Amino acid sequence: MVLKVFFPSCCSSAESGILIGRWISGQNSAVILAVVHFPFIPVQVKQYLSEVQRVTKVSVSVLGSWSNSKQEKEESLSEFLEDLGTIFSHEPWIQISKEGNSKFWSCSTLQKHSNNPKEEEIILVYYDQRKVMLSHLHPPLDTATSADHEADDASKLSAIFDTVAKSKILFMTDRYDDGPIKLTHWQSDGVEASIIVELMKQASVPACMLLTFLLSLISGICRSRVLKFWPLSFLWSKLSTCEQLGHRLQHLQVISSNKKAQTQTQLMRKANIFVSLLIDVALGILLMSWLYRKNRIGHLADTLIPVADHVAEELQDLLQWLMGAPAGLKMNRALDQVLGRFFLYHIHLWISYIHLMSPFIEMILWYVGLSACLGLTVALCILSDIIALLTFHIYCFYVYGARLYCLKIYGLSSLWRLFRGKKWNVLRQRVDSCSYDLDQLFIGTLLFTILLFLLPTTALYYLVFTLLRLLVVIVQGLIHLLVDLIDSLPLYSIILRLCRSYRLAAGVKFRVLEQQDGKPLRLLMQINPLSYGSVVQTYRLPTYSCYPKDSWTSLCKKLFLGELIYPWKHKGEKQD
Q1: Who contacts 43 (Cβ-Cβ below 8 Å, separation ≥6)?
Q2: Separation in Å, CA 472 to CA 9, 150, 386, 559, 565
């Protein structure tokens, strides 16, 4: 049977002593965690290991002896190392020795209490203790299609990674301490960096407490009955700016919570939210500084009114074209004139409203620009709401045309069933047979003829205003895609994957160092990092979605039947 010994590469130059680690009997593997140097008192070593085992819940014990000598190994030292196996009774007792500058190590096992001792093949696997301790091994994303042996290998690796990760308290004592036990592990060069981190944690406690108090106050105001009245509740649910502010408020509550993250996923989620907020606010401040430099707010306000007038003039020219003979089509003149004048009157009202608001537009834009300090996503949501308000007349035209077209489509479908002697059963939600008298057939034929000849005029207006509405929807959709990208992108995980790829481990690979007959096989365990796509898929943050997601088939069906394709409805609500 093959015995696998996982040896930390940082202990290769350690002085002679005993090996401390965990024995995984199910895998016939030994995970070495540290080397205790001579001299030491065995009773103190046992007390120390029992304390480590009580805190970490890891069965840490003395697994064997380690000999590092630049000269020929003395016989007395060899006998002393073998006698340690009687004090620390562990089966098998592992003996690893490094002689001089030789690149080949000798490794053997002693089984004193075994009746039939067998010669075991030993594989020495070197691993970077710091990287393994700080890394998080991710299971395969597609566990349903992965083979059983791959899942078994992942569980074996997980046991090794968990052993090193849970033994952090063991690394708090090193060879420079004044205690009776001298250890060698990855942190033997000092713990100054961890002290700085602890000081930063202590300094952040008052800031988190203050932020938690302010957020609880804001949340109490948002949940008050004042905001539940109809006008305020309607604006809060329909404006994307309010939705984004509520989304960011939840993020701030997660960050400022004094509840410690229990798992690696929760810790990464907090870190991703914090970095996302930080970058979002930084980009917003940069946008705000650009807007208030060189009076760009005034130039934008001066440009907005002429652009709105130009759009209104283009719509008037389009309506005049539709009221004539568009593309040589012969329309119903009476209905064409009624619809054209109806829409021209709305455009006149819109132009009057814009000119009435023109003295206040610069002041409104000045205060709106200040909201960029809350983040670039808030500024983009405000831009989306401004576009929705500025194109509200186009939305009204689209709704009028869609409702009129939908009424005629459903009227024609009902009258077509009348010709076939059928009707729609509302209670059973199906088409049943029905007998009609002569008067009903005459009225149905008359109405069908009227609706059929008026349909081209209505369909043309519906087609034009639907195209205009789709143009506005595409612009707003691109803005919301950018907002969702900033909100959901796990920036901290991506930066961690770029700078310290070993922190996000997908698996390991082994590289052969040396192999010689009579000597143990020496392998180097290296960490395979997660791919960038897997990082985004694993740690992507949830986002809010104001609009339902329709398939292309459903979208084309709604366009043909005249149903509203992009109403102000929230996800989960029933559509028209």
Answers
A1: none
A2: 61, 50, 12, 16, 12
